[in-house]
Amino acid sequence: MYSIGEFISYGNSGVCEVMGTEYMDSSIGESGRRQCYILRPLHDQSCKIMTPVDNQKVIMRNLISPEETKQLLDDIPKIETLPEQSARQQEISYSRALHSGSCREWLCLVKTLNQRIESRKLKGKKVTATDDRYFKAATEKLIEEFSVVLDVNADEAKDMLMEAFEA
What phi, psi does 23 have (nearest 5°)? Predict the structure, then answer.
């Protein structure tokens, strides 16, 4: 179980603070009451998420450690990019990576899209809306987690990420 005040990664909501737990009546068809986390997304302090402690549908995990963060940044040159595919298959791959809950998968996605975007620009082509959307979403997830883990502001986390891609 997570502790009150702990930061975790919760599905598409990103980094959330565990504000407490509460028992809720189970949904239709289930008997009894279920213990739920009360989560507050870091990016939206006015939001409150209630989710069962034993939720198996949404990825809920501890944040990576500062050491793991630094290792991931060092590993960027070794991280493989996603293979070229049809537009539809590419979007499916992008979606899987984004929803994986894995910082390594997010880095893979950002690296893939960064190369794709640069390649398109060099050819005088525009960045596709799909590429732009997934690039921004994955980058935001990484910056948010890295900033909490390394105890730096979002701009510093972004600078670290961009420097690691340039190295």
Answer: -95, 135
Cα distances (angstroms) measured from residue 107 to each of 40, 51, 110, 113? 25, 27, 5, 10
Say if residue 123 is in the same domain as residue 155: yes
The string of pLDDT tens digits covering residues 42-51 is 989 899 999 9
pLDDT score at 27:
64
- Measured in residues, the chain has a length of 167
Question: Is residue 55 domain-shared with residue 131, that is, in the same domain?
Answer: no
Strands 49-52 and 33-41: antiparallel
| Residue 2 placed within a domain | no
CB atoms within 10 A of CB 45: 9
Residues 70 and 48 in one domain: no
